[in-house]
Amino acid sequence: MTEWDIKKLRILRVLSERGTVTATAEALLMTPSAVSQQLSNLAKQLGVPLLEAQGRRVRLTDAAHLVLRHAEAVFAQLERAEAELTGYLRGEAGEVRVGAFPTAVPALVVPAVRLLRAGDRPGPSVRVREAEAAEAYELLSAGDVDLALSLAAHAPTAHDPRFTLLPLLADPLDVALPAGHRLADAPGLRLADLAAEPWIFGGSGPWSEITRAACEAAGFVPEQAHSASGWTAILAMVEADMGVALIPRMASAERRRGVVMRILEADLPRRHVVAALRQGAEGGPAVARVLAALQQVSTTRTEPFS
Fold it and tell me: At what angle are helices 32-46 and 6-18 packed, to 10 degrees?
């Protein structure tokens, strides 16, 4: 019977995600030669070639992709087994490592932790790791977090067997205007009214895509006057009358006195927040309690994600 080595299969999975032996070695804190040796041994154990040369790089063979498809089911079952074992040993206590993008930490994670502490039963200990939304799936895949909060715009395909994605909320996007802007008090403000304005948003990535998509849905392409990714920097520029910007309502703690926030009731732009877990891990009692607390907090923040 063919021997399936879980450790070596995990190395093969990381290689499929990272693309190179060097990047795989860095992710797993191994040397490139050790990665190559482990994968060579796995190929011998399975009796099929797993890698083939492609210039200076390597690519996975069709056999390797076949092996990974079945290995994902094994990994998910191991996650379920670990979740059940943790529940048996610790009940609903234990530690849950949560990765969350910056605005989600104060808006969702901290209130969820307070909710867990206020309960009659002892809740799980939550360890928070702030990370950009794009990092969520790398952290989950590497086993560095148990649950991650991300944006739907960052999510892998719905058919990715490694992860379970659960919608949390639709976070409304309000427009930030300088306090003295001619439209600061205009009734029924729409995005289209701001088509000729200079805009401030990130130079690339999902936030840039979210802003552009919202404006294009309103019938115009926004002129990017300035590029920034942090809300503090963006709002400082808005306050200085350097442009306008879409701001997620979850980032309300960053608002400034010289900035007017307007709700765009006619356009209803949104960004969608999701919770992501490794496939099979959602059955763990501790993870389930943290997830339930996050879902409860989400219902009080803004409208539910539909």
Answer: 120
